[in-house]
Each structure stands twice: as C-alpha cells, then as structure tokens.
Amino acid sequence: MALPMTKATLEVAAGSATPFADQTSARAKTQTLFPLEVRGLCFDAGGRRLIDNLDLTLSASGTTMIMGPNGAGKSVFFRLIHGLLQPSSGSINWAGKLPSEAVRRKQALVFQKPVLLRRSVAENVDFVLRTIGSQSVEQREQLLDRVGLLSLSKQPARLLSGGEQQRLSLARALALNPEVLLLDEPTASLDPASVMKIEQIVADAVSHGVKVIFITHDLGQARRLASDVVFLHRGKVAEHAPAETFFECPDSEAVRDFLAGRIVL
C-alpha cells in the first residue's frame, strides 16, 4: 500500500537517510549567504517589465516555496538571484555579497528539464565532482545510492526515465555540496512515485542544513515541503508568510483567489 505524501512522511524518510556528504551535518553552523536581501529589484526585457520593484528577505533555514500564476516572474527571479541575469535596477545581496561567481559556487540550480551529459550515470556525477577537486568513488556512490540510482550507475543517462533523470540532476547538484539549492519546478509532469522520491531527497537535504528555494505550482507539494511561501504576482511579492499563515489566513486577494482555484491574472 502506498504511503500518503505528507510532511510527516517526508520527514521520517529524510531522518532515516544517509547524509549526502559527511560535512553536511555541520552545514547550519557554516551558512555564509544569508540573509538574502532583495531591494527594489526590477528587470526589463523586450519592452516589458518582468520584475517590478520587488523586495524580499529570506533566512537561512528550511524550504522557501515560490508560487504564483504563469508569467509572474518566478523563473526570472531565480536567474536574477543566481546571477545568470543582470537586474535593470535594484540590489541583490547574499549576506552583503553580490551574486558573483564566488557566490554561485555555493549554490546549485536544477531546472524543470534535466540537463545531463551524454555519458553514463556515474560519469555525470564524476564530472561534477571533478569540478570541485574530488575523484572520490565513495562520494559518487553515496550520492547515487541516496537518490536511488546506484544500481543504474553504468547505464547511459539518456536512457533513464524522466523521474530518474531528475534525481540524477539532484545528485549532480548536491555533489557541489551547496549552501543553497534552487529548484525550478523539478517535479513538473512527473508521476506521483517520482515526485515522492524527489521530495524525500529535498527533505533530507534540508534536514542537513541546505537551504532550499523551490518553485512550484503544486499546492499539495507546497503544503508538504514549505517552511515559508513567497507568492509572486505581476513581478512583485504579493505575499510572503510562514506556510501555516499562507495557507490558513492569507492577506492578499491574489493568494486567496489562487488557493480557491480561481484564475489569477
């Protein structure tokens, strides 16, 4: 019988898991990128303002879910805070530091569509480990075991299912030993079993001190994983609240409409 996907289920699964790397157990004591402070952020493209005077402060712990209707600016916001796009105006500071290459090295970004090498599963992880100066077979096997792909380590990555490819993307991201994991709808279009496995991996990373910022359209997923929720609407923060407050008594009309299943324009 399948287990229901609840926050308690995910926490139990995460608590029984082996950490990705030994050093993650001390992560909460060594966070160097928080608070994240965004002030007056604007981004224009194609004659349109996609991010409009956005203000936001995020703390180091837990999972922040980013929600909002299509076109609200969620993915653009990710690329801005990760330093892949330059803002038109405003500021982004990770504990007072700009989104530089040094800051990006402490972060990992996973896209909705997996980006993998045309090599074996093991070689995909090895490639990332080499970028941080590691050739540890033990570390690679630990990562693959934790995402449930150790038995497929010799298989070409392109032959994996969609859910398996996304788990391999997560293993590659976590091989970087990031302080911050940015997830842009990583479970979109996946089957429920794959979604649950990925959520368990995310919950385990959080339990070892990795800060997760996660874009989703899935209300059930947000309820299971969120510590706090940021709701973007028309390029602005319409609401930012602890998860319980967001779901039980939101202040914003846009959020109330969204939670009720009404169309938010």
Describe the structure.
The protein is an alpha/beta fold. The protein folds into two domains: 1-12 and 33-106 and 188-265, Rossmann fold, CATH 3.40.50.300; 117-177. It contains ten helices and nine strands. The chain has helices at residues 7-15, 74-81, 101-104, 121-131, 137-146, 162-175, 192-207, 219-225, 243-248, 253-259; strands spanning 36-45, 48-58, 63-67, 89-94, 107-110, 180-184, 211-215, 228-233, 236-242. A hairpin with a 2-residue loop joins β1 (36-45) and β2. The longest helix is centred in the last third of the chain and has 16 residues, at 192-207. The N and C termini lie far apart (40 Å). Mean pLDDT is 91; it is low at 15-29.
Order of strands side by side in the largest beta sheet?
5-6-7-3-8-9
Number of domains: 2
Number of helices in the DSSP assignment: 10
- CATH homologous superfamily placement of the largest domain: P-loop containing nucleotide triphosphate hydrolases
* Molecular shape: globular
Instruction: Name the structural class.
Output: alpha/beta
Rg of Cα set: 18 Å
Mean pLDDT: 91
Q: What is the CATH topology assignment of the largest domain?
A: Rossmann fold
Tell me the fraction of residues in β-strands, as a range. Answer: 15-25%
CATH class of the largest domain: Alpha Beta
CATH architecture of the largest domain: 3-Layer(aba) Sandwich
| Percentage of residues assigned to helices | 25-40%
Question: How far from one another are the termini?
Answer: 40 Å
Q: What is the chain-wise order of helices and strands?
A: HEEEHEHEHHHEHEHEEHH
Number of extended strands? 9
Uncertain regions: pLDDT < 50 for 5+ in a row? Answer: 15-29
